[in-house]
């Protein structure tokens, strides 16, 4: 029995040009899905069926891609949730964060909550799926992996620890079919009501070089980051805690 | 006795040859349709054979003369033998003519034999070692059986023993020369070669023409295959072209990938295509294998995918598309077309472009440059140069096509040098700035015809908005694509390489040039400027104008060795025993030159990648810019600013 795997895809944006492309992490979700389910993988997108970039996913060798037709600015969450419930999906794969739109990274969490399914963050590999239980590896920082046992069905997000997506080829991309599904459009008031503005780059922490010798600099450059300078506050009241934090901020020059 | 035996032997062999020819023609007809002038081609064939093909063969005088004697002797002897011995026209004059023809053929065959005594590695052995003996058997036998016809010897001379011997000789001769010609023997090259010349896919190459642009795929035709998967996906005249190969190995000797130990040998590739079109294995191939790949492990047939059956994918990705094989091929076979056709299938259908290929193609789609740099940074190299934009000017004399080298810090020095030259010559020029996109060269060589056509269409659309006299570029790849490959999409421009344009400027006296100082110089011909576009002279002319006497490399001009940077080879990066640029640097070192002049960003990058110590690498534009003499500074005019009123 093959597992019913559905990968969710969105329209990405190239980091330097901002042009639409297949989203990096979503492509990894498709790749993982193809490795799991092969031709039985179902790929799902909620959005505009006329978006030519969708064909970049078909180019990975998919015969079809299901599209829940929605205008821009509509809420993908309820339609995806309803569809997944009805489709009998056992494993739902998504990227961790969309490259366009709100890109909050909340969708997998809200979707898992909506469906009442467990969510795995940072799925790296599925080791086995047996009688309704999957053994998977979850990616942790610094290349660490954590082995988890999850019951089906579940939602999992794939980040850059997932398998590298295969090349999208022109031929299959042109031949693949975009399957349209009519759904009820729900406005995403949180999104349409908000004002978007370009993100400011996160300020860099000031680097104070304290090393006196080359050896010290070498040590500072190679040693693992350690929170040596911090202090642990325990059993303090909120007033005293706030005072300590403010003191630090003034010391660091953040608050003047 | 011979009088009854000879016609039987001759006509039997001829009959079998006709059957073989029909069988062979049917094999070619498995290929796809091609637009060919069937009759016109046939009529033009003798001239193509005697002029164009002979020009290529005549680069090796020994074999050219040998071939003229053998082939002419054979054709005459065969025709006369059919008349004299086949139809029994025992005429003395015909007899003497036949004697002469067979002597001529024998002389030729002797020289073939001498060449084959200690054959160079590039030549195929196997049945080809038998050929000089077969030629001799044919010529000697027909000489002897014709002696009585010419009245030199009595008809019954020598008795039955000699007659039997001659019978065997004639049998051997006609088997090889008539029967073998159409049933796959070494003489197949004459039969298939003649038809290949008649129905060549690039008829423009004959009569001194040049045709190097890749042929476009019709992407709107949904029934046409995207590239070549199986031998039958080639056009029929491509299949015919493969069959014309004489296995001389000139391509093998010229191929940079073969020399570097990468798994490619153009001769073997063509022979593998022959195996593919006829069906079978490569076990009978008697030449050099693909480096690192054993012979006899691959097989195929017209209906079976080529890659990973007949040929491994690395073989196709090793090619730098330098066209050295095509340039050398005395049969004018189009190796590069075949390789790109097969690459197209791998990229467009299989999504199997190796190594960085997929990333580069994705970048080209998303950022219009292979490096994935932000398109907005395309003009950063010229931030302080105040270059006129064509978008502002709308019309200009020279459109300076910058190319993707704009993102490469080394090439930016070349670009800035060329701008200095343009400014010094007071040329009316402009750049497209951010409107320029990659020309599509790399995408096309990697087989991604769709992305190429996308980029080409957008560039052509941009260029159509403006008016300019000519396009000048420092990049021979952009030059080739703009000049030879945009035409198929209705983009017709006058395009010049910067060396050509600078030669014109120097001729017109527009540049105040000093002399090149110091070190001795050699010049490396870029493939896409030289072999692809025939421009060998202009760069040398520019160097001469700088007072440089070019120390030519042994392999220069049309025999120039590739730097290894073409055809997406640095991107697909197929491992070999050594690197192609290292071999080229060895060629450069042999001249003793301390500086090598180049005219291509790829060549610059590849050659500068060779570890030091090595000769310096400078673009021709840099050399010219260095030699520019500053105009005498205009006499300082006193400060004429009006005094400001002070209240």
Automatic annotation (TrEMBL), chain A:
Keywords: Electron transport, Transport
Domain Electron transfer flavoprotein alpha/beta-subunit N-terminal: from-to ranges: 11-188
Gene3D superfamilies: HUPs
Domain of life, source organism: Bacteria
InterPro entries, per database record: ETF_a/b_N (IPR014730), ETF_b (IPR012255), Rossmann-like_a/b/a_fold (IPR014729)
SMART domains registered for this protein in UniProt: ETF
Pfam family, any one: ETF
Any GO MF annotation of the entry: electron transfer activity
Family: Belongs to the ETF beta-subunit/FixA family.
Protein name: Electron transfer flavoprotein subunit beta
Organism: Pseudomonas proteolytica
TrEMBL record, chain B:
PANTHER family: IRON-SULFUR-BINDING OXIDOREDUCTASE FADF-RELATED, IRON-SULFUR-BINDING OXIDOREDUCTASE FADF-RELATED-RELATED
Alphabetical keyword list: 4Fe-4S, Iron, Iron-sulfur, Membrane, Metal-binding, Oxidoreductase, Transmembrane, Transmembrane helix
Protein name, entry field: Dimethylglycine demethylation protein DgcB
Gene Ontology molecular function: any one: metal ion binding
Pfam families xrefs: CCG, DUF3483, Fer4_10
Keyword Glycoprotein (UniProt): no
InterPro entries for the chain: 4Fe4S_Fe-S-bd, 4Fe4S_Fe_S_CS, Csal_0991-like_N, Cys_rich_dom, HdrC_iron-sulfur_subunit, Helical_ferredxn
Ranges for domain 4Fe-4S ferredoxin-type: 236-266
Membrane-spanning parts: 6-22, 68-87, 93-114, 135-153, 159-179
Domain of life assignment: Bacteria
Keyword Transmembrane helix in annotation: yes
GO cellular component: plasma membrane
